[in-house]
Specification:
The complex is a heterodimer of chains A (186) and B (248).
Chain A (H helix, E strand, L loop, with lengths): L12 H5 L16 E8 L9 E6 L24 E5 L5 E6 L12 E8 L6 E6 L10 H5 L2 H4 L5 E3 L2 E3 L2 E2 L9 E2 L1 H4 L4
Parallel strand pairs in A: 1-8, 1-9
Antiparallel strand pairs in A: 1-4, 2-3, 2-5, 5-6, 7-8
Chain B lengths: L4 H12 L27 E2 L36 E9 L10 E6 L24 E5 L5 E7 L4 E2 L7 E2 L2 E6 L8 E6 L10 H4 L4 H5 L4 E2 L10 E4 L2 E2 L9 H4 L4
Parallel strand pairs in B: 2-11, 2-12
Antiparallel strand pairs in B: 2-5, 3-4, 3-8, 6-7, 8-9, 10-11
The chains are: A mainly beta (186), B alpha+beta (248).
Amino acid sequence: MSAVPGQTVGPFFHLGLEYDAMNELVPPGNPKAVRLHGTVRDGNGDPVPDAVLEIWQADPQGAVLRQPGSLRRDGWTFTGWGRAATGADGHYQFFTLEPGATEPGTAPFFAVTVFARGLMDRLFTRAYLPDVPELSSDPLLSAVAEDRRHTLITTREPDGLVFDVRLQGDDETVFLTYPRLRDAWS
Amino acid sequence: MESSQADINREIEAAAQQPGGPQPKLDYPSYRSSILRHPKQPPHLIDPESVELWAPAFGHRDVAVDEADLTIQHAGTPIGERIVVTGRVLDGDGHPVANQLVEVWQANAAGRYRHQRDQHPAPHDPNFTGVGRMLTGPDGTYRFQTIKPGPYPWRNHLNAWRPAHIHFSLFGTDFTQRLVTQMYFPGDPLFPLDPIYQSITDPKARDLLIAQYDHEVTTPEWSTGYRWDVVLTGTHRTPLESDIEETA
């Protein structure tokens, strides 16, 4: 069957996609909360103030929880999914838990989807945890050119895990496609 | 100098000579805002792993039943042509995507969004927000009541008008099926003029975004109706019984 094509999220997505605590997979005050944040930039290096990111992740034990409750947070249930829009400075942030490895010996990552005004279709990428020995044997990271590998790995800073997204240009983020999408990309 | 519609038409015509696939061209300069916002490197092909083989779950805890009626969110009745939009969400193999979240947003009947960045001087409707949410049923069916949105100007070029549309956000059963798109109405005269719609250069793929009028989904003496089925890309994982169970 032919898949329906995507279209840009447009300039007014806040109207339809925003809701309370959408970027708080855990409450910011949770002692185990980690801040995952960064800036989305365009081909000129300018911040993109109308982008929206979604993350989907395992819990710290590596379990893929399929719990409802992402739209009405109860402050307790960890659903593993959240959404954050960029502000006027192109910056976004999530409060979450660090994902664990879903299989022994693999490198944990956040699965990330990026949408923006001016971006015709959504983009997929990964944000790996830094400082994990398994990064060196990860099949994706090993297959990506060495000078672009860092675009997939968060950096640990005093104010959280940083994951910047560059839509175009120097340091363009590595975006992903999958076998069943391959033929659907232009 | 600001481009005219005639300039844009020429660009659309030229781009159509180099057809892309069934998805929009990310590099489509007649949508001016795409020029600096499309990746220039090809996407890296991988087999999905780990969480990518699963989609987030939503349930009745997340979405109230009345969120599927955009005409009852205020004290009064919104102005405009009352319509029902319904259809099924299917995966690329034709399996229904059950109990999954559908989010919609749209302009009002005058073509105005309830959003501070919308400066189009058409009237706001105090009785219309233009936001709905629903869960698909066991057979993948979604359904909502709304009013038909109007076309609106968007300053991509001089006197640029978007065809009337409703924004849709959809999830499948795995992460890779995530889709945000726009549903259009049949016979819109603005189709050939719109760079966003025309960024899909395959006409058959473009047609998949157009709902069909369906008298079967009208409500007598109340509303007209449109049907629009959404086929997502294929799953990378054999759907399990648990995918179609009620998770709420």
